Amino acid sequence: MRKSVLGALVAVMMIVPGAQAEERKGLVVDMPVFAADGIKIGRVLDVSMTDGRIEQIRVSTSATRGFGERIVTFPQPAFTIKGDMVLNPDLSAEESQALPSDASENHGLRHTKHR
Fold first, then answer.
1. For the chain, what is the mean pLDDT?
2. How many domains in the chain?
3. Is 59 part of a structural domain of the chain?
4. Residue 109, in any domain of the structure
């Protein structure tokens, strides 16, 4: 029964019109994000929504011992919102650290050459 209640909560959080969607978006921002192996990989920085649905989340991750903070984007359905946390059920913490950084982390600049 608990699983069905969590599933209903996720559905409600993902399909909410107008101002309620913005309120839900605010609740997701700053949630901790955990990998499939139960290790915390970061915190939600931002949520992108379309028609009241969460399309993707941007997560601030840090490497071992807190060094090497990066921003990684997880599209839906790569994550699940469970209570007061976000779970990435398909990737371990190590696999999450291997993901490429979000382009916006560098203000949209990639491979800029200095002259």
1. 75
2. 1
3. yes
4. no
